[in-house]
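Quick question: what would this complex look like in 3D?
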Amino acid sequence: MCGRYALNATAGDLIEHFGLISCPEWNARYNIAPQSSIPVIRLKPGAGRVGQLVRWGLIPSWAKDPSIGNKLNNARSETAADKPAFRSSFRRHRCLIPANGFYEWQAIEVEAKVRKQPWYIHPTEPGALFAFAGLLAAWNTPAGDTLVTTCILTTGPNALMVPIHDRMPVILAPEQFDTWLDPDNPDVDGLRGLMQPCDPDLMAAYPVSPAINRGSAEGSECIKPVEVVS
DNA sequence: CCAGACGTTGTT
DNA sequence: GTCTGG
DNA sequence: CCAGACGTTGTT
DNA sequence: GTCTGG
């Protein structure tokens, strides 16, 4: 779950919304897929929150083969603190991933065949952004460079998501940002406690065209509401 | 102890 | 690096 | 997440 | 079936 999302905010929007001290330029995107370079927000101790572009698909520091990053787009929040692939990232390298909304595919049966209807889920409040809870990892390339990668934590569905899908991203509220982002926060149990489905009243959803399925589809038509054809 | 895996999603 | 399986 | 490819050898 | 690319 959460394998596709939209971020059409500008760097200025992110700076304002999340109180960043810096943020790389960003061109609006409506169909961001794993392996893309995406902006994450992390806390630079003693300085403040910064935006940084990293690759979506976590490569643990110990990986010999970076292709493991093709699979680690998400981490189950229920177990991430304990799994070898995510443990050290959960302890020390947490981030937020800003999004205007995300996509989920709803399996619906039509004439005894399963069809997948994509939905777009966005904040109820106009102009608001989601902040997904994410993890970071730094991997040393054979060439001697450092490749920073990320993944999105997932959790069970809230009431809005239940009809659509059985997983959703962990979405944090502004009052939780500091606790989550502080790399020196040693309270793993407290961090675990943040890993909950968010209040369903904060989100709204509508179906979109299956044109989104194609990873190369781009533009605001990706989030245009459609009638469900059944 | 060493060797080998280390993950999620969805689908069967 | 750290955990699980043998 | 879904779509689309999935291979080698040798030659240009 | 499984991996890579978008």
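Answer marked as accepted. Chain A is about 10% helix and 35% strand.
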